[in-house]
Design a protein that fits this description.
Helix content: 55-70%
Strand content: 15-25%
Oligomer: single chain
Distance between the termini: 61 Å
Number of domains: 2
Structural class: alpha+beta
Radius of gyration: 29 Å
Length: about 400
């Protein structure tokens, strides 16, 4: 009979976790999407990229966001569920029925484990797929819209034998300002072209572009005779073929740790002979693929006592405390990433210390919640909030 009652309670808690998780997942996805809205509008308005292409780009970038959105959604759904149970005095009723706080953990741990598996699938499979897919899509779009592939004040070597530099680009008129080109396609000769103005004309069917320059100078260096010829021109046309650049990018494969699969990361770490910046970056990416999924369990574990110890008239306080702990987790993760990338901090510690700190705080708070003692962090946060209110009143 007791087992049946526990099963009913577990199902009730587990079902209560699902709606807030879905709402939080949609909400945080929308927030992350808003950070990309300027770039999206620029592609649609200035570069005339189709909405279908933009849609695919958003889809390919989602796995990167989901690595962080899913753990945060898991934490907030657990927190909101237990805030509701606490506010409706259901936690008190369960305690009076003989259940302790620890007896409420099984459905939460199952929910967090499912969130961890979903995060792991995004980190291990989704992220490399999304990064490589968006790389190919970007090259395909750039092959029909050269001005997308051109970045201001950046040397571009995507075209075989041609180095391009543009100081300024007007996307609306497709006009280039202060253009520098180094052309090595002619054997035994190096040609440099400098022009104050240029214009891009494209032929999407053949993936070829005509770069027309105005009022510039051509310097041709003959390698064999070591002679230099200088010619001024009114107009000068350079043909660029993007098919070679697209084929090279696709054939090159992953060259960033986020584009590598788990097996490729292991192969790189095994074959690496020097501990340079790329080695540390790859090692951190390896640990991140496991530490972020575990964050679902650590943050979910922490959210249980936060929800239980917040009374109904202090729900906003409980939510604020949850956001505070997530920001603390993210700051620790960011600090570990920055120092680990430079080799100043072991990548293993950089990626796992946030989980250890969060899980430790959760165990301490859960133990105190089971003994019906206040959270050790409540007084600190309350004091900070009180000081902030005083500061705001004095400013007014």
């Amino acid at each position: 009979m007791t087992m049946r009652i526990n099963t009913i309670i577990y199902r009730y808690i587990f079902r209560g976790l699902i709606p807030p998780f879905g709402i939080n997942l949609i909400f945080f996805s929308f927030i992350f999407l808003m950070t990309q809205i300027i770039q999206i509008m620029n592609l649609v308005v200035n570069h005339r990229v189709g909405l279908s292409v933009v849609g695919w780009m958003i889809l390919y970038t989602l796995p990167f966001f989901m690595e962080f959105i899913i753990p945060m959604s898991v934490m907030m759904s657990v927190l909101l569920t237990f805030l509701r149970l606490s506010g409706d005095n259901e936690i008190l009723a369960l305690k009076n029925g003989g259940l302790s706080v620890y007896n409420l953990l099984p459905p939460v741990m199952l929910f967090c484990l499912l969130g961890a598996l979903l995060t792991a699938s995004m980190a291990i499979y989704g992220l490399p797929w999304g990064r490589m897919s968006i790389k190919k899509l970007t090259m395909q779009v750039a092959s029909t819209n050269l001005d997308i592939g051109i970045k201001e004040r950046t040397f571009i070597d995507s075209f075989k034998g041609v180095m391009l530099y543009v100081n300024k680009l007007d996307a609306n008129t497709r006009t280039l300002s202060d253009v520098f080109i180094e052309d090595q396609r002619t054997q035994d000769a190096i040609i440099t072209v400098v022009a104050p103005k240029g214009q891009i004309e494209s032929n999407p069917d053949t993936h070829q572009f005509l770069l027309r320059l105005y009022e510039g100078t051509i310097n041709q260096v003959d390698v064999k005779s070591r002679s230099v010829n200088t010619v001024r021109f009114a107009t000068y046309d350079i043909h660029l073929d993007t098919r070679q650049a697209l084929a090279s990018a696709v054939a090159l494969g992953p060259n960033h740790p986020e584009e590598m699969s788990l097996s490729e990361i292991r192969q790189y770490l095994t074959a690496s002979t020097e501990n340079n910046s790329k080695y540390y970056l790859t090692l951190m990416e390896f640990h991140k693929k496991f530490s972020l999924p575990f964050a679902c369990i650590a943050l979910g574990f922490l959210a249980v006592p936060l929800g239980i110890q917040s009374r109904s008239n202090k729900r906003s306080f409980g939510i604020s405390l949850g956001i505070f702990f997530f920001l603390m987790y993210y700051l620790l993760l960011s600090a570990g990433w920055v120092f680990g990338e430079k080799g100043l901090y072991p990548p293993l510690l950089g990626m796992w210390v946030p989980n250890i700190v969060t899980a430790g705080a959760g165990i301490l708070m859960l133990h105190r919640a089971n003994q019906e003692k206040p959270s050790p962090f409540s007084n600190v946060v309350t004091d900070i909030a009180r000081r902030f209110r005083r500061l705001r009143k004095s400013a007014v």
